[in-house]
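Q: Joint fold for the lines below.
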Amino acid sequence: MLVNGVPGNSISIRDRGLLYGDGVFRTLRADKGKALHWPLHYLKLKRDCTALGITCPDEALLCAELDKVLAQHPDGVVKLIVTRGAGARGYTPSADVTPTRIWDFSPLPDYPPEWMTQGIKARLCNLRLSIQPRLACVKHLNRLENVLAAAELHDAQSHDHQLAEGLLLDADGHLIEGIRSNLFLVSQGKLTTPDLSRCGVAGIQRGRVMAWALQHGMALQVRDIGLEEALHADEIFIVNSVIGLWPIRELEQRYWSHFPVAAQIRHGLDRQDT
Amino acid sequence: MLVNGVPGNSISIRDRGLLYGDGVFRTLRADKGKALHWPLHYLKLKRDCTALGITCPDEALLCAELDKVLAQHPDGVVKLIVTRGAGARGYTPSADVTPTRIWDFSPLPDYPPEWMTQGIKARLCNLRLSIQPRLACVKHLNRLENVLAAAELHDAQSHDHQLAEGLLLDADGHLIEGIRSNLFLVSQGKLTTPDLSRCGVAGIQRGRVMAWALQHGMALQVRDIGLEEALHADEIFIVNSVIGLWPIRELEQRYWSHFPVAAQIRHGLDRQDT
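A: Joint structure:
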């Protein structure tokens, strides 16, 4: 793959991405040689870099690199990592480092297509997300909480192979997100999504759902959500750039079988993709 | 330096240490070809690996690699990183990855020697540590909070170049640690160090001070400490494996000039080094 524009699959052991998780990343869907929603991904990358005080690489430079990746791998999952770069010892980020740009590719995961229409089984993780307003929303490389939650889900999957996602509460008991997805509730035709000002990752598919709701006059609230509220919602669904949109059909002994609003939104988002 | 036993200075872009900060590290002092307190470092490495579910490399293997590093670099700072290894896409840690072992070296920083005896000026950081009991004590690679705090300290140093360390409170206002050090208070001849069960890194020098206190019949408490209590302590000092022990002579408009207990402990620890 590409590292700083050059074919390669390694980085320096002094890269701050490794040393401290000092960087951000994007996971994008490549479809017929096109990176879906690239402008949104770049905007988010830039915002996340700013949150960490990393100089975001120019869009033209990244676009040129992305084109090289897509020429080789027109369909699948493209990952872009931008780290602060390789620097001197110590936590202090020196101003004169050049950010590292890393592109990688993997095939599209082979998820059962019925998960999109009939929904998935999800599970509440025991791990609670910590509250850190300075890093909230940012898709940075400090992802140990996700790793621990994914390990927990993996253990649960050995007893129940239908489990497809774990949902995460924060330390205060608010429902925040899925391990690798953002979350929406539908209640009486209205959408609600968790407030991510204290923890969580604000993904671009979340932004797309919110934009769609605004455009289509669907009421939308961004606020704290408790587990009980979620369990009593008419629909719950999760989104990310790889899976698209999956409704939840089972969570904590609650069952759902109809997802009209989720289906409407999924069709709406799909239409924008073409 | 060494990567998995082979001279090299790069790792795979698919290493989970980079992708998720999924690993742990040690910073050790090399002195005349000897790694100080290696047994304590290995014990801590093993404990930290266990906390993340990483299989800790055998001590014999690491010792052989360490010997190679010390043969080339007998004096300075040795860093050892152990990551979960390179694996498939996604947060889930698969069982069949081999941990990556990374050794790096840097010269001993050139700190003013009087900081050991006359103390340093420290500053309270605005950044608050988040509370995550699952990761507390562990020296893992998710260090963005330290990076943000170090950036804050660096900004403050541009106005006040005497500042040598930043102290960190957690989200609840408890004093936890320095950006790169652990912290002790001395009050009426008794030692107190912050409880690190919810956040912070429990370094091996902290353990050494605690062991020294026990051996020498000095009362020691591990508990929550508020800022006010710290500002009214008879002495405050910080420790880590590179700096050793530094008393604090100034913090938040409070001044200290005598550090008899800190000096006693520093001498005690130094004697163990020889």
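Q: Anything notable?
A: The longest helix of chain A spans residues 144-159. The first strand of chain A starts at residue 2 and ends at 3.
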